[in-house]
Amino acid sequence: MDLILTDRADSVWGRISGDLDISTSPCLRRRLVAALEPPRVGLVLDLSEVTFMDASALGALMAARQRSLTIGGDGIRLSAPSRPVLRLLNAAGLQDRFPPIIIPAQRAAAEPAT
């Protein structure tokens, strides 16, 4: 797992790549929860390069989401979640708890050429 976090005005933006499993989830949980301190109460995660994700990693995301909500944020928004991430969120019935966010570069790539 590789995790890069960047502080913004009222949120933390992160990019995660690699496998998210029982061996990486404790570190993921610690780093995400610790990053959420007022005034940074929201979390936006780019998960496009996550190659595997298990339930322990989902637990880490849920802990970070709860931390965000507890300190007045709106939880976690996902940017371009990979297929393994979407598969797990859908199987767990939690896709609605992690709403998507479209970054302008993604919007341009998704729009058909005219």
From TrEMBL:
Domain STAS per the UniProt entry, residue ranges: 15-114
PANTHER family: ANTI-SIGMA FACTOR ANTAGONIST TM_1081-RELATED (PTHR33495:SF2), ANTI-SIGMA FACTOR ANTAGONIST TM_1081-RELATED-RELATED (PTHR33495)
CDD domains membership: STAS_anti-anti-sigma_factors
UniProt-recorded name of the protein: Anti-sigma factor antagonist
Family: Belongs to the anti-sigma-factor antagonist family.
Species of provenance: Sphaerisporangium rufum
NCBIfam families assigned to the protein according to its UniProt record, in alphabetical order: ant_ant_sig
Any one GO MF annotation of this record: anti-sigma factor antagonist activity
Listed SUPFAM superfamilies: SpoIIaa-like
